Structures are given as structure tokens and as C-alpha cells.
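User: Hi! I'm working on a homework problem where we have to compare a predicted structure to a textbook description. Could you give me the structure for the chain below?
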Amino acid sequence: MTISRRELLRLAAAAATLPVIPTAARAQAYPSRPVRLIVGFAAGGTNDILARHIGQALARRLGQPFVVENRPGAGSNIGTEAVVRAAPDGYTLLLIGPSNLINTTLCAGLRFDFARDIVPVAGISREPTVMVVNPAFPARTVGEFIALARANPGKLNMASAGTGSITHVVGELFRMMTGIDMTHVPYRGGAPALTDLLAGRVQVFFVGAPAVLEHVRSGRLRALGVTTKLRSPALPEVPALAETVPGYEATAWYGIGAPKGTPSDVIEALNQAVNAGLADSDFQQRLADLGGTILSASPAELGKLIGEETEKWKKVIKFAHIDLS
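Assistant: Happy to help. Predicted C-alpha cells:
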């Protein structure tokens, strides 16, 4: 059979359009079944609460359940690896945050590369850490705390939720930028650290706002400063640490990631749905109740933040000689 040149050109043009059709159809169909949102920590904490809030917002906008699945262990590495190994189809997502970036430097022998194997999808929120002390502690300001620490090198105990946790590295950044010497006391989680601070057994704790807002408001703890660049709307009377330590800034931020190779149109659909959810006044109020603020970002903007924060914590970890071995 002989095919004319005109017919050959027509067939070639038609064939060239074929790869576009599945992509467009996939974007229109996504999601066609429930989506898993993996959280690398146990239920009930900030990570879990944020995941459930954004999951509800996504379900309303995309018409399928977004099921939060807790995979705690190894400082979030177990949950992260589960997503890295999942099919890159948009049906397994990861709640990402500071632990992922800290672990990049801190954890030797990981079987994945976070920056390479997880692609950024969308931001969710920024949350201040609060520098809190027991009300009986003599320092009432950040400046007084620094002066007291300099007069008593190594004698003030700094609690953390564990070696290499965000509560640890935020405190080490403060130590690095002020030149003071404190003794790090790691706990197995934030709750026991907070218990000992309330009892006066440790002197200072850099902890996420949701865990201490009520304690500060009731007077059971004294907030010396927040770690955001500016004062937090949740604690407007509490100074930013940068007011005393110029250039100091540290936040716990959260977003969503997906396995490498997830189609760009699926990532775009998710990004648009997340940002639409963040614009909702009810969602913003929920974040405000947790002491957080909106982190609306494109995938590229979130990727830039991930790179900057990874380098920041790498420097702190090396300065403080943090080692999990």
C-alpha cells in the first residue's frame, strides 16, 4: 500500500499530539481515589495537626479523601523513606518540615537523598519557636539572660526535645550568635522537657509556640522572645530575639512534598489546591490558634527555602558538633 506525502504528514502530526492527551486527561482526573499524606511523627503533635487541617482542605477542593498516615520513628526518616519508595503518581505525599533538612546533615547512612528524592509541592505554615523560662528564673529579658549566661558559663541548662531536634538546633543557633555557653539537656520528646522546665529543673527551652501558648498566657512560663524575624501575632507583647540579637531568625515551617518523578501537572494541581485552602479565613484562624502564619509558595519558592534552610542548619550542626552516634 502506498501512502501519499499529504497522508504521511497528517499521520505524523496526529502522532505528535498523542503524548499530550494522557497528561491532560491525568490532570483532569486527579485525584480519582484517596491520597495518603504521610507524617513522620506520632499522632497529636504539630506535624499531625497541620497534616489533618490541610488534608481536610484538600479533600474539600479536590473531591477525594486525603488520609493522614503516621509513620513515626528515626526523627521522621521512616516516614520520609516510605514516600521516597512510593509510586510517583501523586497518591502518596509527605508532610515536610525542619527535621527533614536537619537530618540531611545529621544522619549518616540514609538510604535516600531528601533534596534529590522528594520534590517540593506547596508550603503550609511558619511557626515561631518561643524562648521560655520558668517564672522563678531571674532573667526577665533576652539581654538579661545573655548577661547571666556569660557570668555563669556552662551552668545554665538548655532543654530540648532530643539531640538534633528543631528545639535543639534553634537553641544552638542562639548560642552560636551570642557566644554564650549552655549545657544541652536532651529529652525524649517535648513533653518531658516542658515538665522539667515547669518544675524549674532546667533553665530554658526553645519550643514551638503551640506547646507553650497557654502556659505563657497563664503565667506558668515566661516568654523572653520569639524566634521569628518580627514579633508573632500570637504573642504580640513578646519581643523577637532579633531585637536583641541582630540577624537572629529561626522558624519551624511546614509544607508538602512528593516522590521524585511525580508529574508536573499533578504537582501544579496540588499546589493550587493547597494555596486555595490557605486563603480560606477558617484555615487561617486554625493556624493562628496554633501560633502559625501562612506560608504560601510555589514549588520553586519552596525549593529555594529548602535549600537555604538546609545550609543554615548544616552550619549550626557543625558549630555545635552535634552527633547522634
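For your comparison, note the following. The domain at 34-126+251-320 is CATH 3.40.190.150 (D-Maltodextrin-Binding Protein; domain 2). The chain has two domains: 34-126+251-320, 128-243. Good luck with the assignment!
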